[in-house]
Specification:
CATH class of the largest domain: Alpha Beta
Helix content: 25-40%
Distance between the termini: 28 Å
CATH topology of the largest domain: Rossmann fold
Number of helices: 18
Structural class: alpha/beta
Strand order of the largest sheet: 3-4-2-5-6-1-9
Shape: globular
Radius of gyration: 23 Å
Number of domains: 2
CATH architecture of the largest domain: 3-Layer(aba) Sandwich
CATH superfamily of the largest domain: Tandem AAA-ATPase domain
Length: 454
């Protein structure tokens, strides 16, 4: 049953910004209502100068979130939505339907732009999770960039605009302002605000911010971006992060140390493991820390069950309370399913109802699949990271599936980490990246904290 929308003051502010600015970025923390605020602004804009809106989003968000939000709120129920998903034939049929809001997944961006080679029927483009367009070399960025002159309104939504570094920001801001504030090209942006430090390979350098550049970047974009942190506007329950440390046996430790030192583990019986580069080595070490490694012949070599044993302890302590677990590698998923009963995955068409009703005691997902748009806070409050990801964006977004507006309980986030391994390095790297992310959010944050008291 649809409910009446009574926007919080900060949501009203976001709605006004979208209406007042033809091109704008809502850099809102998870749980602050980016979707309903954007749809509400679009509803009002239909009375002014906007007819049809195209939403480009991660696949699962495109499939579920936007249509669900329209059904949820009384003031949006009149909007007709068409999901441009599936096969090319199904997508074309969806585009030919009469609707107000057309929603597609980001992988269809180039196809959609090619389909409308000589025309463009949408007055407004919304990119949900703008950070997925942070790569200026990607086909999706290049395709949508060509359509911007045909679009009256553009809105970029994200909670993590610079997940890894401020280099990620250029492409996103370009889609908002066409390069007006941060240069017309990525190379000029990088040259202006960064300096090369050391070579990573013959033609690839590591880049660091020039002195004073960080503040200048923030200043340049503050008029076209609205940033809000959930902690400033929501009364959130407590969040507890734990490190659940496991220890390798001496035999397992030797295997880890040998792989780290020599880039190779040889075994005629179990398969040889070779890391061809430093990047490949980091992935192999992450796998070994989790308990298994892919061999050169694409088989899986199991090394230990330490994390599986720790997960069993966590499940026992939970006493039947639902747990959302994030894994990193497919063999993690396979070993978890083999070890435990009644494991639910996102492939189950009823996973959401099972989770919300407490029937899914262990729901497992890869953060890339569950990192955006899934609202799972009603079904549980415990997260387990079986293996960490290097991506701050995926890490933050995945945690926000439970720790978000509407969560009524203390949220517990367990990180299962193997002692004295790459796990600790990844964990600390995520914390360091978080500093840069928070600095960006703070720098362009709306100065309307008094609205909390209204």
């Amino acid at each position: 049953m649809a409910i009446a929308f009574k926007p919080h003051a900060y949501q009203k502010h976001a709605i006004d910004k979208v209406i007042e600015n033809e091109r704008f970025g809502l850099f809102l923390d998870m749980g602050l209502g980016k979707t309903v605020s954007t749809l509400t602004a679009f509803k009002d804009l239909q009375l002014l100068d906007t007819d049809k809106m195209l939403v480009i989003a991660p696949k699962r968000v495109a499939k579920e979130t936007w249509a669900d939000e329209i059904k949820k709120w009384v003031h949006l129920n009149h909007l007709k939505v068409s999901l441009v998903l599936g096969t090319p034939k199904q997508r074309i049929a969806a585009l030919n339907k009469e609707a107000d809001v057309y929603v597609t997944n980001k992988e269809n961006t180039k196809w959609l732009c090619d389909y409308y080679a000589k025309e463009w029927p949408f007055d407004m483009i919304v990119i949900d999770e703008l950070s997925t367009f942070k790569n200026p070399s990607s086909q999706r960025f290049k395709a949508i960039r060509k359509k911007l002159p045909l679009v009256k309104r553009f809105i970029g939504l994200t909670g993590t605009p610079s997940p890894n570094s401020l280099l990620d920001l250029w492409a996103q801001v370009y889609l908002i302002d066409g390069g007006e504030r941060l240069e017309k090209s990525f190379s000029k942006y990088r040259e202006r605000f960064f300096r090369p430090t050391h070579k990573l390979s013959p033609y690839v350098f590591n880049w660091e911010l020039r002195d004073g550049s960080e503040g200048l970047i923030y200043k340049q974009i503050e008029d076209i971006c609205l940033s809000m942190k959930a902690r400033d506007y929501l009364d959130m329950p407590e969040r507890i992060d734990t490190k659940q440390v496991v220890t390798l046996t001496s035999k397992e430790r030797k295997l880890y140390d040998d792989l780290e030192k020599y880039y190779i583990l040889e075994s005629e019986e179990d398969g040889t493991i070779v890391a061809q580069s430093g990047a490949a080595l980091s992935q192999k070490l992450l796998q070994l820390s989790n308990g298994a490694v892919y061999t050169d012949d694409n088989n899986v070599r199991c090394i230990h069950d330490q994390k599986l044993d720790k997960l069993e302890e966590i499940l026992e302590e939970a006493q039947g309370q639902p747990i959302l677990l994030f894994y990193n590698f497919k063999h993690d998923k396979d070993r978890i399913i083999e070890r435990f009963e009644d494991v639910i995955t996102l492939d189950d068409p009823e996973y959401k109802s099972k989770w919300d009703t407490g029937k899914a005691k262990l729901l497992i997902a890869h953060p890339a699949s569950a990192g955006h748009g899934l609202n799972l806070q009603d079904g549980g409050h415990i997260i387990v990271w079986f293996g960490l990801t290097w991506s701050l964006e995926l890490y933050q977004q995945a945690n926000a599936r439970l720790y978000r507006q509407g969560q009524q309980h203390t949220t517990i986030i367990h990180h299962i980490m193997t002692d004295n391994t790459i796990d600790q390095r990844v964990y600390h790297a995520l914390q360091n990246k978080k500093l840069t992310q928070n600095e960006l959010m703070e720098a362009v944050k709306a100065r309307i904290l008094e609205l909390k008291d209204e």
